[in-house]
C-alpha cells in the first residue's frame, strides 16, 4: 500500500506503508512528517480531507489533529467516496500499467509509482480538487446515488 496527499499547490511524496497501518503509525509516519508540513506550507485556511479509514479516525489521531489545529473536513460514515485522491489513484494505476513488461519486483514497482505520481500534471490535480463543489452538488441531487464522477 502507498499513501499520498494532493493539493492545488503541491503533492506529498508517496509513502510505502509496510504492514498494517494503525492510528499510531498513521500519526507518526504520515501525519507528522508529511501532512502537517504540507498543510503549514499551504496556509491557515487549508482543510484536510481524509476518509473514515480506522487509522484516520483513531482517538490518538483525532487528538493529534486537534492539537495541531488542523481544519478537517467532516466525512459522513456512509457517504459516497467523492475524495479527489481516488481519481488520482486511478490515474496513477493507468500510468503504471503502461509500463511493459510489468515490474520485476516491489522495488521497481515503488520506483515507477513515485515516478508516475510526480509526472501527473498539476492541472489534472487542480481539476480534481476544483471539481469537489460540483461533485457534492451532483451527489445531493442524486440523493447519494450514482453520479458521473
Automatic annotation (TrEMBL):
Q: What is the lineage of its organism?
A: Eukaryota, Metazoa, Spiralia, Lophotrochozoa, Mollusca
Per the UniProt entry, the signal peptide is: none
Know the name of this protein?
Answer: Tc1-like transposase DDE domain-containing protein
What sequence ranges are listed for the domain Tc1-like transposase DDE?
A: 4-100
Molecular function in Gene Ontology? nucleic acid binding
The record, for InterPro entries, names: RNaseH_sf (IPR036397), Tc1-like_DDE_dom (IPR038717)
Amino acid at each position: 500500500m502507498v499513501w499520498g496527499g494532493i493539493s492545488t499547490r503541491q503533492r506529498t511524496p508517496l509513502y510505502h506503508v509496510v504492514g498494517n497501518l494503525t492510528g499510531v503509525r498513521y500519526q507518526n509516519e504520515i501525519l507528522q512528517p508529511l501532512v502537517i508540513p504540507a498543510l503549514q506550507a499551504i496556509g491557515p485556511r487549508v482543510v484536510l480531507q481524509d476518509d473514515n479509514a480506522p487509522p484516520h479516525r483513531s482517538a490518538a489521531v483525532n487528538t493529534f489533529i486537534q492539537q495541531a489545529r488542523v481544519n478537517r473536513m467532516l466525512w459522513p460514515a456512509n457517504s459516497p467516496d467523492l475524495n479527489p485522491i481516488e481519481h488520482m489513484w486511478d490515474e496513477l494505476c493507468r500510468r503504471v500499467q503502461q509500463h511493459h513488461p510489468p515490474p520485476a519486483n516491489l522495488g521497481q514497482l515503488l520506483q515507477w509509482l513515485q515516478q508516475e505520481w510526480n509526472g501527473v500534471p498539476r492541472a489534472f490535480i487542480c481539476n480534481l480538487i476544483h471539481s469537489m463543489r460540483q461533485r457534492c452538488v451532483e451527489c445531493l441531487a442524486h440523493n447519494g446515488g450514482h453520479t458521473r464522477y
